[in-house]
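User: I'm putting together notes for a lab meeting next week and I want to include a structural view of one of the chains we've been expressing. I don't have a solved structure, so I'd like a prediction I can at least talk through. The sequence is below, exactly as it appears in our construct file.
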Amino acid sequence: MTTGPTFSPERVAGLRSGSLSEVRAALAGLPREELAAWLATPEGEDVLRTAFERMPERYTGGPMDGPQTARWEVERPSADTVAYDIVLTEDTCDVRETGTSGDPAVTLALDAVSFVEMASAATQGMDLLLKGRLHIRGDVHLAMRMESLFGLAEPGEPG
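Assistant: Thanks for the context. Below is the predicted structure for the 159-residue chain, given as structure tokens.
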């Protein structure tokens, strides 16, 4: 079992909240190394899985050429990768176990800290891509639409 830093109940509640502003507040002042170590724990893994489970709530939809599968691979040092297939249509977002949806149109691979930063709009995907923290295989156009499809605000905006 992976052990990591212990965070205050308030910080954990913020990370679990699903509110963009509360997650960003919980991230404030937290060193990447500490967050990475915590995300490698079972509690951290649960937060990552919850973020995926909440994706349909945030999905705003948009034009699609039929169902599109985006595979997310969230890497955690010293722990298993958390991966899901997100099947998108114009109106729906279905979160599935990886590999149950056929070949993905795009695969997005990034470290757990970068995923939390992107999912909370604390950092934009393009910034992560330019820093080499986000790796895209497949349909780059679909990858670039992810933030708008999930209604993620620009960093610093309420959410």
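A couple of points you could mention at the meeting. Residues 67 and 81 are 25 Å apart (CA to CA). The two ends are 34 Å apart (CA to CA).

User: Perfect, that's what I needed.
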